[in-house]
Amino acid sequence: MLVVMHQWATEEHIHRVKEVIESMGLKPVVIPGSERTAIGVIGNQGWIDDTPLMQLEGIREIIHVTKPYKLVSRDFHPSDTLVRVGEVCIGRDFVVIAGPCAVEDRDQIWTVASTLNDLGVKVLRAGAFKPRTSPHSFQGLGREGLRLLKEVKGAFGLKVITEVMNPGHLEEILDVADILQIGARNMQNFELLKEVGRVTRPVLLKRGLAATLDEWLASAEYILLEGNSEVILCERGIRTFEKATRNTADLSVIPLVKELSHLPVVFDPSHATGRRGLVRPMALAAVVAGADGVMIEVHPEPERALSDGQQSLNLEEFRSLYREITALVEFVHALDLKRDQGILQTEG
Ligand code: PEP
Ligand code: MN
Questions:
Q1: Which residue in 2, 36, 283, 293 could disulfide with 63, CB within 3.0 to 4.6 Å?
Q2: Could you tell me if residue 93 is inside a domain?
Q3: Burial, 49: exposed, middle or buried (Cβ in 10 Å; 0-12, 13-18, 19+)?
Q4: For the segment 187-196, what is each residue's pLDDT rounded down to a tens digit?
């Protein structure tokens, strides 16, 4: 429920509304705005009887929220959430996250990290614990992978994102990771979501294999409800009847997420397509669609990769894509500025 106050409502009116909400056993969340203040209500598991609020002064309207999420919605938080990771402010600066699917050995991760660092990439991705479809496939180096990530992080000053699959690994992962990745397969592992909701570290939440937008945002809500509001959403394609690509890239969800939620959203063209040749066009398309960043798999020798080689770019391919992304981001930014200033409309 959302209690929208009149513009003329005083601090005293707002205070009284909060008190009454608390007396109903619920939690008020004040949402200040330039036009008017609103008070979000959380803690209910069903319809709220709003009779106790009816007589209070200063209330303009009471909106019953029927969506399965509140804290992640723009209604509850109108301005964009910015997630700071070192020098990068995700949600304001376009972020390029790159690296291999998995850490495989010392040579591999050092080669990738040093190339990315030379280019100016700030965030390195690489899995240590890997969620693999077959138990016979490479499962990641585990603890040794974390150790290698820590080593390259120390050498290059890169920020690191790596996947957490098991709450039992969280402490060790927190020792290395600047962003915790929740993979598609765990998007609805609610206990895991609550665990990462209790730590102070940004979380990148991938969309589930066949999750609707509402289900994805409801999963993000689990993390925010525990107190961690530094959530980055990641579209990575969904399973459809189309088998020509590994997944179906849902680019339209990007502007839609930006409309419904204040959380930043990045796009993963590697998993969304599963095909090296499609990574470049889809990464560029995501920039135009308004994504806050992209996450791309890069391997020094994709044909020898232990996981996801078919969708990984080699270092040269990534180098050239990175330049294109940087140029396109600047172009789109300039276009947005022109639109905001109304120049495009008046140019004839
Ligand atoms: C990955 O990022 O390597 C990965 C396993 O992704 P997803 O969870 O999207 O399949
Ligand atoms: Mn992968």
A1: 2
A2: yes
A3: exposed
A4: 999 999 999 9
The pTM (predicted TM-score) of the whole model is: 0.95
**β partners of residue 162:** 180
DSSP string across 144-209:
HHHHHHHHHHHHH--EEEEE---GGGHHHHHTT-SEEEE-GGGTT-HHHHHHHHTSSS-EEEEPPT
- Looking at residues 217-240, what average pLDDT do you find? 97
> Residue 134: left if φ>0, alpha if ψ -120 to 50, beta else—which one?
beta
Dihedral sign computed on CA atoms, order 296, 264, 120, 131:
negative
Question: Which residue bears the tokens 């019953």?
Answer: 64
114 secondary structure, DSSP code: H
> How many angstroms does the Cα of residue 101 sit away from the middle of ligand 2?
4
Q: How far is the CA of 336 from the centre of ligand 2 (A)?
A: 33
Given a cut of 80, whether residue 126 has pLDDT beyond it is yes
308 and 193 fall within a common domain: yes
**Does the beta carbon of 299 sit less than 6 angstroms from any atom of ligand 1?**
no
Instruction: Return the DSSP state at 70.
Output: S
| Number of domains into which the chain is organized | 2
Closest ligand by atom to 246 CA: 1
Query: Mind listing the pLDDT tens digit for each residue in 86-108?
Result: 999 999 999 999 999 999 999 99
Residue 325 has pLDDT above 80, yes or no: yes
pLDDT over 90 (residue 222): yes
Please tell me the distance from the alpha carbon of residue 62 to that of residue 302, in angstroms, as a whole number. Answer: 55
Domain with 94 in it: 83-337
DSSP-assigned beta bridge partners for residue 42: 27
Residue 314 CA to its chain's centroid (Å): 25
CATH number at residue 25: 3.30.70.1140
| Ligand 1 near 101 CB (within 6 A) | yes
